[in-house]
Amino acid sequence: MKKLIIITALAATATNLALAQTPPKPKMIETIIDGVAGFQDTPMEPDGKWHVHDPARPLPVVVTPGNTFSAQATPPSDAVVLFDGKDLSQWRDKKSGGDAQWTIDDGVMVSAKGDIVTTNKFGDIQLHLEFREPTPPKESGQGRGNSGIYFMGLYEIQILDCYINKTYADGLTGGLYGQHPALANSCRPPGEWSTYDCIFTAPRFDADGKLISPAYLTATLNGVVVQNHQAYRGATNWRVPGSYSAHAAELPLALQYHNNSVSFRNIWVRNVPLVNEP
Ligand code: MG
């Protein structure tokens, strides 16, 4: 069954990192198909198959994860530890550049008040990160436990409570938000720890700013492959397709605050080139 809802004001929770740079639109139409709320008043993806955030797009199959070897993995010797339960010294508030406003509770970092970015800048990275969705769950769709990892502050892999929570396919956990859905929905229930292991290859631009190669992501969520060397269509955005603009070879990693308290622990990266270049 299809239902249309006209939204005249921009929903306060329907934001992402890029929205701050996107002028608000006066009106949008939310479409609900079989209980999945999304949009069909958005542009088509470049391959012409689906609208951005299309509720008709097939959802990833649900896979119940097993016990993963990587939970609370000890960082390898060349890792940059971004959070070890002690302090937020590796992070800054994205907006002000001052101290990160997230809290630490019993060795766990909890999202609050705004996006955070790393003090260090990275290009290609291997990332390990563990997160936990709040329980009991509140709200639904994109309002339930939303956060996200933004490689280079630009390219998101979504974090959302997708355990028995319906939302559009390109907005589920493990998806490149607004672009490529996850290959599987391997979310654990809220209140349980989940593990992301990601291999991110930064985009390459030539001296004139022309894109030579896109950003790529390979990722597992709870030991299940959710992205396999998937190219980003550009920087993550909301209601419009991703697009590239030339940027520095290294930029801070960001974590999103989306009005939900999402917990994080054991975050580390290996900051090494991940492309064999001649
Ligand atoms: Mg997000």
CATH class category label: Mainly Beta
Structural class: mainly beta
Please indicate the percent range of residues in DSSP E strands (runs of 2 or more): 25-35%
Rg (C-alpha, Å): 18 Å
**Low-pLDDT ranges:** 9-14
CATH superfamily: Exo-inulinase, domain 1
Largest sheet: 8 strands, antiparallel
Q: How many structural domains in the coordinates?
A: 1
Number of helices: 0
Number of strands: 18
> What is the averaged pLDDT score?
92
Q: Using the coordinates shown, work out and report the CATH topology.
A: Jelly Rolls
Order of helices and strands: EEEEEEEEEEEEEEEEEE
CATH architecture: Sandwich
What does this structure look like?
- Residues 9-14 have low confidence and may be disordered.
- The chain has a single domain (57-271), classed as Exo-inulinase, domain 1 (Jelly Rolls).
- The protein is globular, with a radius of gyration of 18 Å.
- With 278 residues, the protein is mainly beta.
- It contains no helices and 18 strands.
- The strands form four sheets. Strands 4, 6, 7, 9, 12, 15, 16 and 18 form an eight-stranded antiparallel sheet that branches. It has a five-stranded antiparallel sheet with strand order 5-8-17-10-11, with no helix packed on it.
- Magnesium ion (MG) binds at residues 16, 146-148, 158, 177, 256, 258.
